[in-house]
């Protein structure tokens, strides 16, 4: 019996097509990822293809891990020999081997956004940038954009239009030089440099010879650089299988190019194209809702997804008075479910932006519901954790001045900016790296007290460096903590020092866990550990067996599936998000994001919105339900508050929850409010009704501007004069 019996006939056709180009283009939950996994198993087990020849690239580490596990379930240990990886970690592997070709050492460090900002900030100071509009963060984002577009500093310098761009170009040029000097790459470099390496005929031949079969999942979200990397590798054998769904392209804002997937057939004329139409994930109602939304996109080619599953629950739509009430509703649903035998892990809360997690976090904490937030402020980015990691980075790569400057005076050692400048000058004069200059501090003209401190730090680090080859990362961690007396320093850091100490301890645990894992069998070098932490993505440590509610952004939920989903904050200006320059394309990308969110749900989907919410520290009133909510075909939804309460009531029976019904979205000719009438609102004062917009909301001119107010809220908050 073939492994491929686990696939339907269309999926099977795709899995059996091993030679030549293949495109699997299909909607959410139709088994694209499953097909890729089975295809790999089939190739290795039933076609006798060496697993070493297969390269499978996915988008997140979590997806890569899952794919590896699934292949392992099918074919056992041979699966470990297949290169299943993200673009970034595949790139890092290649770059470590060939670093010298690009002027790097193999032990280069990887800079995150925060490191980038620090470095750019320093360079802006050096270049005496006076323009207040240009912040390190804004310059970093401009540089990243150039990098995504493949523009080198010299390209940018050529086409400078105005003073700002000239400044950015200058910073960019210095930044690129500094990275090499620091033996460090930022995230964009991991891809750019990989792509550059593949222009080297020797490297390209090696890689093409090694990976005869290339597969890419989530191909719709590849950017131009990723596209080039894949195209170069696959060029020789043309055994390239790409998988995706144009309706799930959600990274356009970061340079993903939907044309990569749409033009695949043009590029490979003999490509076989497989479309999958059966959805195995969701109920009919969920699928129907998803389809009714995505078909409104002009870029969508339309899908006929169907399922054998039952109709299932209607999508429950809940209208809350405010963000807290929304969280309470979700809390109650989870508690109810838990009492009926469900587990916390069946529930997932999806939101548009990371900042939305806080209110749910608080509610879950209050009720002792275990939860886990994916994304947001990453563990490895917290101040105290980053401090220790910076020590490790200096030990791994003494050229890294971003890390060295971060810790040179942490804990406080009275090494100030002047001292650093002196040491730097000395380093430049003698053409040595900063760290070595610290070792030759005697030769500088610095005062004797500071010389002693600098030398002490240098020697502590140097000692660890010399032994570091033989030390596992946890031993290095211990030496750092002891050598710096870091915990003691934390006690006087701020009032949150206990939580910070916990995080530092947690870092030790995470090293230990990696060390003990099958992959490392008791020894992980500091370099390997740092690489793991740098590449960690938001969804990485999603452990399936532990029982907690998951919270994440929709972007992070890509490719995943969950039994019960709460899609929260469905309000205009939050989702779709409020962008000043909102174009049709942006709106369509938001709509695809909504499609991704809905199609994560297997059994049940709850959607909620609130009419009042804290946004960036301010209360925003009279928020409109998202236009996407109204785009879902009525057949699939249930406005759950309808039966329980009439909209005219001022207080609902459910204490504090302001429940509104479907009727409130409809045109209401009998609106009690007329244009021109004078009304009073408790927050905004007196105003005049300017418009009764499509009967569903009022536009009122108050002293400080026009406000839009849904009718249902108007009845609650307005008093006629
Ligand atoms: P997405 O677009 O969200 O990435 P996808 O197309 O990759 O979705 P998968 O995640 O591969 O879809 O599959 C969705 C679910 O359906 C999985 O739980 C998978 O195991 C199941 N499934 C897919 N095909 C089959 C099949 N032929 N028989 C049984 N289950 C299947
Ligand atoms: Mg998938």
UniProtKB/TrEMBL annotation:
EC numbers: 5.6.2.4
PROSITE patterns linked to this entry: UVRD_HELICASE_ATP_BIND, UVRD_HELICASE_CTER
Keyword Acyltransferase set for record: no
Domain UvrD-like helicase C-terminal positions: 284-559
Pfam families tied to this protein: UvrD-helicase, UvrD_C
Binding site for ATP: 26-33
Class of enzymatic activity (EC top level): isomerase
CDD domains referenced in this protein's UniProt entry, alphabetically: DEXQc_UvrD, SF1_C_UvrD
Catalytic activity line of the entry: Couples ATP hydrolysis with the unwinding of duplex DNA by translocating in the 3'-5' direction; ATP + H2O = ADP + phosphate + H(+)
Keywords linked to the UniProt accession: ATP-binding, DNA-binding, Helicase, Hydrolase, Isomerase, Nucleotide-binding
InterPro entries named in the record: DExx_box_DNA_helicase_dom_sf (IPR013986), DNA_helicase_UvrD-like_C (IPR014017), DNA_helicase_UvrD/REP (IPR000212), P-loop_NTPase (IPR027417), UvrD-like_ATP-bd (IPR014016)
UvrD-like helicase ATP-binding domain: residues covered: 5-283
Recorded family membership: Belongs to the helicase family. UvrD subfamily.
Identification of the protein by name: DNA 3'-5' helicase
Provenance organism: Psychrilyobacter piezotolerans
């Amino acid at each position: 019996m073939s492994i491929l019996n686990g696939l339907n006939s269309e999926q099977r056709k795709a899995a059996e097509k091993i030679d030549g180009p293949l495109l699997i283009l299909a909607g959410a939950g139709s088994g694209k990822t499953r097909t890729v996994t089975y295809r790999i198993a089939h190739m290795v087990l039933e076609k006798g293809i060496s697993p070493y020849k297969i390269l499978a690239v996915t988008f997140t580490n979590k997806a890569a891990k899952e794919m590896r596990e699934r292949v392992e379930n099918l074919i056992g240990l041979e699966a470990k020999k297949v290169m299943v990886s993200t673009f970034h970690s595949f790139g890092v592997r290649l770059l470590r081997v060939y670093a010298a070709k690009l002027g790097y050492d193999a032990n280069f460090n990887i800079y995150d956004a925060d490191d980038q900002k620090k470095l750019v900030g320093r360079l802006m100071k050096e270049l005496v940038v006076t323009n207040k509009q240009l912040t390190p963060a804004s310059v970093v984002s401009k540089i990243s954009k150039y990098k995504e577009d493949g523009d080198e500093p010299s390209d940018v310098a050529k086409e400078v239009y105005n003073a700002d761009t000239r400044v950015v170009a200058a910073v960019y040029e210095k930044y690129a030089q500094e990275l090499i000097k620091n033996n460090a790459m930022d995230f964009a470099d991991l891809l750019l440099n990989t792509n550059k390496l593949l222009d080297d005929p020797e490297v390209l031949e090696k890689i093409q010879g090694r990976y005869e079969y290339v597969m890419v999942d989530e191909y719709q979200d590849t950017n131009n650089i990723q596209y080039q990397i894949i195209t170069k590798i696959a060029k020789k054998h043309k055994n390239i299988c790409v998988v995706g769904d144009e309706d799930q392209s959600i990274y356009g804002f970061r340079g993903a190019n939907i044309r990569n997937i749409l033009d695949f057939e043009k590029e490979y004329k003999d490509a076989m194209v497989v479309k999958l139409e059966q959805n195995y994930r969701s109920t009919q109602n969920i699928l129907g809702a998803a389809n009714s939304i995505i078909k409104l996109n002009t870029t969508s080619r339309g899908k006929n997804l169907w399922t054998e599953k039952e109709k299932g629950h209607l999508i429950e739509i809940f209208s809350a008075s405010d963000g807290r009430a929304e969280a309470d509703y979700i809390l109650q649903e989870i508690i109810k479910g838990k009492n009926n035998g469900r587990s916390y892990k069946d529930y997932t809360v999806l939101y548009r932006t990371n900042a939305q997690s806080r209110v749910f976090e608080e509610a879950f904490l209050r009720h002792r519901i275990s939860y886990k937030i994916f994304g947001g402020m990453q563990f490895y980015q917290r101040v105290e954790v980053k401090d220790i990691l910076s020590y490790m980075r200096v030990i791994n790569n003494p050229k890294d001045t971003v890390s060295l400057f971060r810790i040179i005076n942490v804990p406080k050692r009275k090494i100030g900016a002047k001292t650093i400048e002196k040491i730097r000058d000395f380093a430049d004069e003698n053409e040595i790296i900063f760290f070595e200059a610290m070792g030759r501090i005697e030769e500088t003209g610095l005062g004797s007290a500071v010389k002693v401190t600098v030398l002490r730090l240098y020697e502590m680090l140097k000692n660890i460096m010399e032994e570091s080859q033989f030390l596992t990362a946890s031993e290095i961690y211990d030496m750092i903590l002891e050598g710096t007396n870091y915990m003691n320093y934390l006690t006087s850091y701020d009032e949150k020092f206990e939580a910070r100490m916990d995080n530092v301890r947690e870092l030790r645990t995470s090293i230990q866990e990696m060390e003990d894992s099958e992959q490392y069998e008791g020894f992980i070098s500091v370099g390997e550990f740092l690489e793991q932490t740098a590449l960690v993505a938001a969804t990485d440590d999603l452990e399936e067996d532990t029982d907690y509610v998951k919270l994440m952004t929709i972007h992070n939920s890509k490719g995943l599936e969950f039994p019960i989903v709460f899609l929260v904050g469905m309000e205009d200006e939050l989702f779709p998000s409020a962008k000043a320059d909102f174009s049709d394309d942006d709106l369509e990308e938001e709509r695809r994001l909504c499609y991704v969110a809905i199609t994560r749900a297997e059994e049940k989907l709850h959607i909620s919105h609130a009419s009042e919410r804290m946004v960036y520290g301010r209360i925003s009133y009279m928020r409109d339900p998202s236009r996407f909510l109204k785009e879902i075909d009525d057949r699939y939804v249930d406005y759950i508050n309808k039966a329980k309460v009439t909209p005219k009531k001022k207080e609902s029976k459910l204490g504090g929850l302001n429940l509104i019904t479907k009727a409130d979205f409809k045109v209401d000719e009998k609106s009690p409010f007329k244009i021109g009438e004078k009304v009073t609102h408790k927050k905004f004062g007196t105003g005049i009704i300017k418009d009764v917009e499509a009967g569903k909301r009022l536009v009122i001119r108050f002293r400080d501007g026009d406000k839009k107010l849904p009718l249902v809220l108007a009845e609650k908050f307005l008093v006629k004069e």
